[in-house]
Amino acid sequence: MNRALMPAAAPPPFARYSHGMEAPGGSRIVVTSGQLGIAADDRIPEDAGEQAELCFRALGAILAEAGMDYGDIIRINAYVTDRAHMKPYMEVRDRFVGAPPPASTLVIVSGFTRPEFKVEVEVTAARKD
Q1: 112 neighbors 36 (Cβ within 8 angstroms)
Q2: Recorded E.C. number(s) (predicted)?
Q3: How far is CA 28 from CA 52, 65, 129, in A?
Q4: Cα-based angle 35, 87, 71 (whole degrees, multiple of 5)
Q5: Is the N-terminal amide bond of 100 cis, ω within 30° of 0?
Q6: Is-above-0.85 flag for pTM?
Q7: 8 Å CB contact between 45 and 88
Q8: pLDDT digit string, tens, across residues 56-67
């Protein structure tokens, strides 16, 4: 089982994430590409939370392809185009991640390949079979 690393010498996390995650030896690792908030019908919602929802659903499909699920995520890298998108993104993230929550980084970027995109999320997952 993946183990959260929460040393007492480090300040508490700013939000719902772990300072680090340790995967046991011999774990299978899955690394995803960044997923954007685009629906299967190519619709891109205006709302950042809806885009984040689509990102996490796509990530879930990728993980399922490898026989994993959201509980196997050990690291999230997320990117938003404005501070205003942080809260809706984090609300969606918190619904999808397991316990303990994975390590996580959220970065504000100037933009993506298309101006409609507001959120991109990539994950690393590990599972010991």
Answers
A1: yes
A2: 3.5.-.-
A3: 26, 13, 8
A4: 55
A5: yes
A6: yes
A7: no
A8: 999 999 999 999
Distance CA 15, CA 119 (A): 18
- Domain 3-127: give its CATH code: 3.30.1330.40
Residue type, 80: V
- pLDDT, tens digit (0-9, with 9 covering 90-100), for 94-127: 999 988 999 999 999 999 999 999 999 999 999 9
Are β-strands 103-108 and 73-80 bridged in parallel, bridged antiparallel, or unpaired? parallel
d(CA 11, CA 107): 20
Structure tokens at 94: 């918190």
> CB–CB of 4/103 below 8 Å?
no
Three-state SS annotation for the chain: CCEEECCCCCCCCCCCCCCEEECCCCCEEEECCCEECCCCCCCCCCCHHHHHHHHHHHHHHHHHHCCCCHHHEEEEEEEECCHHHHHHHHHHHHHHCCCCCCEEEEEECCCCCCCCCCEEEEEEEEECC
Tokens of 111: 């933009």
